[in-house]
């Protein structure tokens, strides 16, 4: 059977649901009651009773319905487990329902005097035997498949195709048996004469069906011990089917006490498995309702705890879709997060160290990045830059470590970030932040064999502004310069205040020296055009030194030192210009140091 494959996950269903001792006792009690009724009727089994025309239609209409409903329920269990053995149970009950329907249609006097489909007096007995024999065989095939392919699971496509083939096969078999017993009746042995069973029926075919059903019952019990819901009630169903045929044999003919009792056993055989499954479904529903109520109470407590948190908390499913977000999230980010929305899309405008938080979350969800803790920035609707710390933890099930979802938390670190990493006057990153960013940038480009550059900028004429207009105007000048730097650099790098009127620009996205010169000259020209601040005339320029990693230095401290030397060279050449670090600058700096 090369179309079968090992299952990926274990699927629990009614066929694998374990029974407890009280459930097995109840099934045993039903079996004992059936046996006692059959045994007590034995002394009166041959007593003839009146022919009740309505008895069989009443019994068999419910029998057919119960068997077809049972087949449908078993098919639903097959869809859950996709186990080949379950398909044989479905086929058995579908076959039983179809054969009982044909038996009812061909029984003399119920619909037409001789039975439908040109039936003869021999048609109904033959269908009866084939019906009960087929039911026992289907249970035997189920046991064989359960023994040989217990741990096998079909794929969805395989299950669908084999289901259609099974349905077609059952319809073909039922139709074939009906055709043989109606149109080829002359070639079949006689089983019934004037309402009395022949010895061939009693001691031949009938006894064979009873023995076969008994063997199947013993095999089923020895294999399962009634340890599951399905197996315990199948034992009762097989017992009822066997007693049905046995009592018929003992009664010897139609409309005897044995014949009427046998129809009762047929009724029990048809509905006992369905009744057991409905009972278990009801129990499962009640348990699920109780569990849901408990979970709802627990969830309310958890939600209250999450709502009272000072952090914005988001729970996502495996695909990153939002399941829950507390109110703090909307308060923090000034826009709602809707259930079902992709968190990565929501965070695509939040900037992380490299790229956006949305890109980082997407990489994590696609297993390209591990769980992270990252500082991010966002510009609010009031044009205020705020800083947050985002971290994520996978939510795993206790058994097996299966991924259940993701928990994201956002903490407001704006005040902390500003105090520790930002210049209070200009709002630019300070030395500490620049040092950390420089190390991260070096680590990043080192792994990718990339490059970056450092600008060291000093204002020409800043001392004169302080001396003539005062330190307050000097502070305002530094603030305006900070704005100019950010406008010129944009998102290609980082601008930081080094000390006094000295600034550092870290450019991470560069292609060539011409691009660096273009950015540097744009900064110089923009500062040169700064003529008035708060109505006061300002006359300052900028000198910039440029150092490139790794040719101008393989360490951050050395890069800054070389950029500083290049900046002094720019001042020596007349100020208001940029100068790239070179070997001649290094020699001049060395000679100055030695002097």
Question: Can you give me a brief rundown of this structure?
Answer:
Keywords: Membrane, Nucleotidyltransferase, Transferase, Transmembrane, Transmembrane helix. By secondary structure, this protein is of the alpha+beta class. It folds into 3 domains: 21-44 and 54-286, Up-down Bundle (Rhopdopsin 7-helix transmembrane proteins), CATH 1.20.1070; 307-418, PAS domain (Beta-Lactamase, 2-Layer Sandwich), CATH 3.30.450; 423-594, Reverse transcriptase/Diguanylate cyclase domain (Alpha-Beta Plaits, 2-Layer Sandwich).
**Biggest sheet descriptor:** 5 strands, antiparallel
Helix count? 18
Shape: rod-shaped
Please state the CA-atom Rg, rounded to the nearest Å: 43 Å
* Cross-sheet strand order for the largest sheet: 4-3-7-6-5
**Total number of strands:** 14
State mean pLDDT (0 to 100 scale): 81
Assign the CATH topology of the largest domain.
Rhopdopsin 7-helix transmembrane proteins
CATH class of the largest domain: Mainly Alpha
Question: Given the helix and strand composition, which structural class is it?
Answer: alpha+beta
Instruction: Give the fraction of residues assigned to helices.
Output: 55-70%
Overall tally of structural domains: 3
The second-level CATH architecture of the largest domain is Up-down Bundle
Share of residues in strands: 5-15%
Catalogue the unreliable spans: 1-11
Distance between the termini: 91 Å
GO molecular function: diguanylate cyclase activity
Protein name: Diguanylate cyclase domain-containing protein
Keywords: Membrane, Nucleotidyltransferase, Transferase, Transmembrane, Transmembrane helix
EC number: 2.7.7.65
